[in-house]
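Predict structure. Chain length: 100.
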Amino acid sequence: MSTPEAPDSNSGPTRVESLIEYPCKFPIKVMGTKVEGLVHAVTLITKQFDPEFDASTIELRESKGGKYLGVTVTVNATSREQLDELYRTLSTHPMVKVVL
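Prediction complete.
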């Protein structure tokens, strides 16, 4: 159990510093039911947040039973906000089950 730090009287809540140094290549794994259009949808969303995204770098992995598909995209991450919004947008797509 950690002990909370005393707040600075001159500012609001402190934000934890990111362990990620931007810009960097950042892999995101998207999982969904293996249906036509999943990879295309993930690619379009990814390009909205990283216009330089190279779709030829996508990695695909089927589940053992073949029902699900893991799609790994590696983006050029420029900020925490960019990654947060990309995760949020991917997570809300109807074909997507999980984003890691």
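Summary: The chain has a mean pLDDT of 89.
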